[in-house]
Amino acid sequence: MAERRSPAAAFAGRFEAASASGALKLAEIPFLAHVNVRVDPASQAAEEVGAALGVPLPTEPCTAARAGDLTVAWLGPDEWLVIGSEGFRSELLRKAVDGGQGSVVDVSAQRTTLLVAGPKARDLLSHGCAIDLHPSVFGPGGCAQTTLARTQVVLLPREDGYLVLVRSSFAAYLSEWLLDAATEYLR
């Protein structure tokens, strides 16, 4: 059987070296579960999905809610992305939308998660992202679908930095871009 390899695995050593200065921490958080949920937010199914997750689906645009190790990110008026640990099982969510009231699709293989943290994280991301990343505007509990270095990403701010959800096919490109853009902070 072939060994499972994450989309940015080849960058682990370079991420670690770039993180040595303390100005930034770059890393891949591989193999997180990513589950796309589509449901009418006013429906019983949405309530049941929230109950299964342990947190109601956020209905305010560009927000995310947390429950333990799960994050539920608002992607649209009837769409959310559930991010959890590798072992997250989406069967309870599927049961909640059973009967054609919505859809639950595991899209884990579609994306990987990059961590950009440290005192210069916001400065680094600002080089390639057009949205205002200041914590007063875009802090923990926020969520945005945007572009970073011309790559579509989902950004989730945290207390210590940002999670950058990127399509697997763009992971190497974005990793190279992050390392190149980080050069000025590593001197």
Automatic annotation (TrEMBL):
Pfam families per record: SoxG
Gene3D superfamilies in the cross-refs: Heterotetrameric sarcosine oxidase (3.30.70.1520), Probable tRNA modification gtpase trme, domain 1 (3.30.1360.120)
InterPro entries linked: SoxG, TrmE/GcvT-like
Official protein name in the record: Sarcosine oxidase subunit gamma
Organism the protein comes from: Nonomuraea mangrovi
